[in-house]
Amino acid sequence: MKEELLKKIEGAGVVGAGGAGFPTHVKLRCTPDTVIANCAECEPVIKSDKYLMEQNAEEIVEGMEAVLACTGAVKGVLAVKQKNKEAVRRLEEAIAGKEKLSLHLLDNYYPAGDEQQIIYEITGRVVPVGELPIKVGCVVVNAQTLFHISQAVKGIPVTRRMVTVAGEVKAPMAAEVPVGTPVPYLLELAGGAVVPDYTVILGGPLMGRVSEDPKSEFVTKTTNGIIVLPSSHPLVEKKTDDFNHQLKIAKSACCQCNYCTLICPRSNLGLGVSPHKIMQALTLNNASILADGQAALGCCNCGLCTYVGCNMNLSPNRFIAEVRAQLLAKKVKSNQEPGTVNLFRNESKVPSKRVIQRMGLTPYDIDIRHIDTIQMPKAVRILLRQHIGAPCIPSVKEGDIVEAGQCVGRIPEKALGARVHASIRGRVVSVNSEYVDIMKV
Ligand code: SF4
Ligand code: SF4
Fold first, then answer.
1. Which of 6, 11, 52, 110 has the fewest CB atoms inside 10 Å of its own CB, making it the most exposed?
2. Burial of 235 by CB count in 10 Å (0-12 exposed, 13-18 middle, 19+ buried)?
């Protein structure tokens, strides 16, 4: 049973759709006691999982059952924000009579969808820095991934996903779109940008990445949002300001008030994350403060220290991300067990509304329309790396006619990876080591 399910999930190219795209058939080779469905969707503005839950609650629950069958876990908990009332109602209906499954209602705080927060809320366990959730008997799977697993069980590969297009567009929307859809095509479907000088963020506004060239971007299995903001928006300025310029300001302006660490959700779980220490090390040019990695390695890049914590308008999250990357490149590992969880953790949670207000996102955090069926794009680009691991090897050549769902890229021998599939029927017009272009026929 387990091997058969894993084979189907591998064949369908399922990856973690809410994160970096870790191949799901590899992730599920473990024996947790608890499977957690991450339906928290905590990034402001993004409504992809909300609509997915409202439209496809049964499939998400089918995915949970498949994961339970695959891993042998004794229980599955779906963690969803109680503010998403319709999604809660649909999920409640879908789990009715299923003894191993239950709902856990989350407050509307940021970052409620952080894996560490969800695991602690549900089980009271904290994953040591550098370890995976299985270390504490858990596996966390995102709502979109569960939907894809339910389809994989039926033999349907990953060719579509729910995407939010919002911000400064005429008609913000959420829709299920083919993987490989050009980003400009989706901006057009959303009525186009309504400001002349705009920036596109792929993913959530806080944790997503600023696109350097939106015309050359395509939807992948992990694209949950396309957010358009004025280029002069404070959030964009924070994300794109020159690193050395920020460093110069930080060196003179950081007053070591410690607010960034006090607000840090990973610090409050006893994981030793200390953005103020990073700032101290930079200010004093004293790298020894960071040598053991404790202050940086447990950071999840949520950005709270920067967007809400720092009253001096500094960006500790950018420095901690840089320090963390350098430590990881040097293979520095944390060897400390988690410390004590802050007794006042609940009180220190930051309401999402406050984050939204602080970052000037209130005008964009609105109810948006959900579109059932979009007009299909005339061409798609299937990237050969949409996952953690090695890029796929193309399994088609120029001129081939491919069907929607046909595998166009396979995992290299003995490598970590996930297959990719054509998302529309069409002719292969270009193939190289990075992508397969398909034109509708
Ligand atoms: S909150 Fe800002 S000023 Fe205070 S320690 Fe952190 S980075 Fe420095
Ligand atoms: S980005 Fe800042 S607040 Fe978030 S986990 Fe990292 S240090 Fe903590």
1. 11
2. buried
263 lines ligand 1 (CB under 6 A): no
> What ligand is nearest to the CA atom of residue 302?
2
- List the residue whose alpha carbon is closest to atom 5 of ligand 2: 299
Query: How many domains does the chain contain in total?
Result: 4
Ligand 2 near 273 CB (within 6 A): yes
Ligand nearest to the CA of 258: 1
Q: Are residues 25 and 124 in the same domain?
A: yes
Are 341 and 126 contacting, i.e. CB atoms less than 8 angstroms apart? yes
CATH number reported for the structural domain that contains residue 425 in this entry: 2.40.50
Q: Are residues 93 and 36 in the same domain?
A: yes
Alpha-carbon distance of 196 to 10, in angstroms, equals 43
Instruction: Please check whether residues 187 and 317 belong to one and the same domain.
Output: no
In whole angstroms, what is the distance from residue 311 CA to residue 63 CA? Answer: 43
Q: Tell me whether residue 239 is in a domain.
A: no
How far lies 240's CA from each of 20, 169, 217, 243, in Å? 21, 21, 18, 8
Does residue 290 sit in the same domain as residue 420? no
Looking at the fold, whether 64 and 95 belong to one and the same domain comes out as yes
- Cα 398 to chain center, whole Å? 33
Considering the domain architecture, whether residues 187 and 289 belong to the same structural domain is answered as no
Q: Quote the pTM value.
A: 0.95
Q: State the closest ligand 2 atom to the C-alpha of 304, by its place in the atom list counted from 1.
A: 3
Task: Give nearest CA residue, ligand 2 atom 4.
Answer: 302
Peptide bond into 111 cis (omega under 30): yes
Report which residue type is found at 375: Q
For residue 412, the enclosing domain spans: 378-441
Q: How far is the CA of 277 from the centre of ligand 1 (A)?
A: 9
| Local confidence pLDDT in tens for the 441 residues of the chain | 789 999 999 999 999 998 889 999 999 999 999 999 999 999 999 999 999 999 999 999 999 999 999 999 999 999 999 999 999 999 999 999 999 999 999 999 999 999 999 999 999 999 999 899 999 999 999 999 999 999 999 999 999 999 999 999 999 999 999 999 999 999 999 999 999 999 999 999 999 999 999 999 999 999 999 999 999 999 999 999 998 999 889 888 999 999 999 999 999 999 999 999 988 888 877 777 776 677 889 999 999 999 999 999 999 999 999 888 888 888 888 777 888 999 999 999 999 999 999 999 999 999 999 999 899 999 999 999 999 999 999 999 999 999 999 999 999 999 999 999 999 999 999 999 999 999 999
